[in-house]
Amino acid sequence: MKTILSTVILLLSFNNANANLAFQVEGTLSSDQRTLTTDEVTLKVSENVSKQAACEEGIFTVVRNNWGASEDVTLLSVDQCFDGPTFCYEIYRPECGMKNGKAKVYTNDCELEKDKATPVDKSLCEGLEF
Question: Is the pTM of this model over 0.70?
Answer without folding.
Answer: no
